[in-house]
From TrEMBL, chain A:
Subcellular localization, as worded in the UniProt entry: Cell membrane
Major subcellular location class: membrane
Species of provenance: Ferrovibrio terrae
Protein family: Belongs to the binding-protein-dependent transport system permease family. LivHM subfamily.
UniProt xrefs under InterPro entries: ABC_transp_permease, BCAA_transport_permease
BP GO terms, sorted: amino acid transport
Spans traversing the lipid bilayer: 12-30, 37-54, 60-83, 95-120, 140-160, 189-210, 222-251, 272-294
Matching Pfam families: BPD_transp_2
Designated name of the protein: Branched-chain amino acid ABC transporter permease
GO CC annotations, alphabetized: plasma membrane
Amino acid sequence: MLLIFEQFLNGLQIGLLLFLLAAGLTLVFGIMDMVNLAHGSLYMMGAYFAAVFTEWTGSFFLGAALALPAGALLGIAVEMIALRTLYTRDHLDQVLATFGLILFFNELARLMFGAGGMTIQTPDWLQGQILILPGLPYPSYRFLIILVGLLCAAFLYVLVQRTRLGMLIRAGASNREMVGALGINIKQLFTLVFGLGSALAALAGLMAGPVTTVQIGMGDNILILALVVIVIGGIGSLPGAFIAALAIGIIDTMGRAFLPNILGSFLSPSEASTLATALSSMLIYILMAAVLVLRPAGLFPAPGR
Amino acid sequence: MRSAFKTFALLSTALMAVPFMAGDAAAQAAKKIKIGFVTTLSGPNAAYGRDMQNAFNLALDHLGKKMGGVPVEVIYEDDEQKPEVGKQKTEKLLQRDKVDFVAGYIWSNVLLASYKPVLDADTFLISTNAGPSQLAGEGCSPYFFAASWQNDQNHMAVGELLNQKGIKKLYMVAPNYAAGVDGTNGVKSLFKGQVIGQDMTKWPDQLDFSGEISKIRAAKPEAVYVFFPGRAGVQFFQQYSQAGLKKDIPVYSAFTIDAVTLKLQKDLVLDTYLTSTWGTDLPYAANTKFVTDYKKKYNETPAFYGAQSYDAANLIASAVAATKGNLKDKKAVGAALKAAKFDSVRGPFKFGNNNFPIQNVYQQEAYKVSDTEYDLRTVSTVLTAHTDPHAAKCKM
């Protein structure tokens, strides 16, 4: 029972990390209609920034506080230099251009930070465990990820649903010409949204860094998962991304944790572990296929799209 | 309204498309020995490819860039840690560059995808890392040599080491690919206790082992065996320590801690148990020369990946010298390779009937040299002049 609860927390933690990445992608992709494959690169650069700043300042939190604006600024620079001209172009052009950016950033990271990867030092008290329930110590850093993810989700909800900026973002998503006609500088708005999306990517990167080490190409694999999240959740829908990210995190973890035992009850142990690995990594794609068959626009399609 | 599926299909196709950046190796004049070397030079595990490349180049320096008096040219190719790319690059080396030898390969799955065209072309393939069981037993070939080990060997030493330490209940975690399967089977073949749990993780994409670590905690084993080469090994130890298990359940590993990962693992891997066929401190003249000159030239400590590549270069050189550069006589070249008349950095080294090494496997441990520097040292010999268990099935 404790194990199930612990695995649930693990799933929640992976899901929330995924949400941080998918939220930024949803803002940019769903709302600005811009396919940005380089979102994973912003995630990677965020992690590298955090590693470098943490080393400079000697404090994880100062490092994180510096890495977030750095990530946002990098995103804004990328938007202004490379992506701005692509909004009106075909999705295929955007895919091509941002794929080029992935290669560019991977090479840039190699030149700037070396091929070996970096670690982010967290304070000692984050290296320990918190006793959540009797007999269930949980890594305190993973607990922090859950906390940050939930806070971030709440912040985004308030921002998008309750503020003027959020209203403009939603309006810009439905009909950008109309927002422009109302006298809003849509260009500036999009740059701002892109910066926000990049900051979220950087946050995801810096939170993931201490668990997974900072490496070149770390954003490439997780980006595919983030894309699965927004497809399942519904393109452009933040609540959809939230629920889909949690669902994927939990299903993935639970599958990995319990499928071998379930299959092991009627298969030989080695067959069971091999089959379970294959099955559990397929689970989320099976889920995606099922969602697409039943609800082609995703579980919670954004209104107006 | 664009359907979500169409968008996803477009995106995932774009993402999975492999960037084609094949290096143009110009066709060269004859009277030259050409060696094609396939390894991982991009992506998160590029550091290992570089370690191999550095060591291979160092060996050529020591040989005066000649083998048996004939100049040598090496063409390095990047497999990006992907089997399909490795195969493609291998075929390019054979067909376009017409190499005399193919060497390299870190990953068993990449080697298994690539070896067939080489052997079918009657070209010698010298693996400098991967040693899959598929090529050691019934699938052995007179054209395939492993300058490294058979995958099971180091893991069998882990099994034996567990016996020596009196471990009765073991939990195993390894990646779900050829080398992971060989590894877990290797441990089990000698381990006398009970395996109370085993997880095979998705390779190479899985970065987060929280699920597996929670299961380890719940299973309460006396020891954990892990096999996660490259960056995955850094992540495992990091997360294992964060879960608070490091002090309670000791970790035994093979190929998971090396000179490259140690720079990131640091304290995380102190007081853990590992096995290896090579160490910087093995007291052989060839080894001392290799380690000293490697450090001098590259300002880094070599890893076992490099040591095996260094051996591979000397192995090829010994065969070329023995046949006086007449590479047309395949039988003679094969016999000379098998004789392995070179000074291995591992000291005692010879090939078994299946062209995999018969060699010692040592226990090693990580230790702190100074506040910032870590190294590995050899503790004891676990298996002596060890032959892999698949050799008996090889009819050659």
